[in-house]
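Hi all, long-time lurker, first post. I run a small reading group and we've been trying to get comfortable going from sequence to structure in the token notation. Rather than ask abstract questions, I figured I'd post a concrete chain and ask someone more experienced to write out its structure so we can walk through it together at our next meeting. Sequence below, copied exactly:
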Amino acid sequence: MEKNIIEITGLTKIYSPRKNPVHALKGISFSVQRGEIFGMLGVNGAGKSTTMNILIGLLTPTSGKITIMGKDFIKHEEAVKGRMNIATAYADLPNGLTVYQNLRVYSFMYGIKNGKQKIAELVEQFGVSHLLRQSFDELSAGQKTRINLCKALLNDPEVLLLDEPTASLDPSIAAKVRKILLDMQRSRRLTIVLTSHNMLEVEQMCDRVALLDKGEIYKIDTPKNLQKFLKVPDMEQVFMKLAQGEFDE
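-- Answer (accepted) --
Happy to help. Here is the structure in token form:
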């Protein structure tokens, strides 16, 4: 079994390359080990969402190589994506369906044989079983976030991409969600790639963090080592230095 489940080399993304080009990613490279929680930290526009969207196949890179689970992602995208999933605070499920209908449709799409049982287990785990008959558009932002997490875990992914996974949750529910995800990571060796503006979340969950700035990776290390390197007491101050460009060389 490969040590690195994700390997990214020279990943570049240029929007509008022929007119007013925007270099969203400037040849970034990094790897993620199996079972690791890998964080991507940066201000809006740093390249986090672009990277996530490329990793799930929603965007095509301008150049670079992506290897996931030992396969070239560009050549074997369909096969690789079947072993991945994503939950994001920025995308809704179809509003015209109930929660159960949405999850059931996705269970069919993912080819889940025990779909009804899997749905029941996940909604119970995330404390949303009472919402199954409600229309998705009637839910609060926090409820939608938890349903999106249920959707993302239906296929027991080996790689889970999380884009601001607790952004709409109150502190107590966010803590419960983090515990669920950490338990899954430890019991299954689930690999998680995480973006978050919640620095406590980053500090508690991430094994390593990549600091992104204007489409480039400034540094990758553990939260503690980043704090030591930047001579600050916590990840909140790491983010502030990153946002303000106040890096010590």
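A couple of things your group might point at:
The longest helix spans residues 171-188.
The chain has a mean pLDDT of 93.
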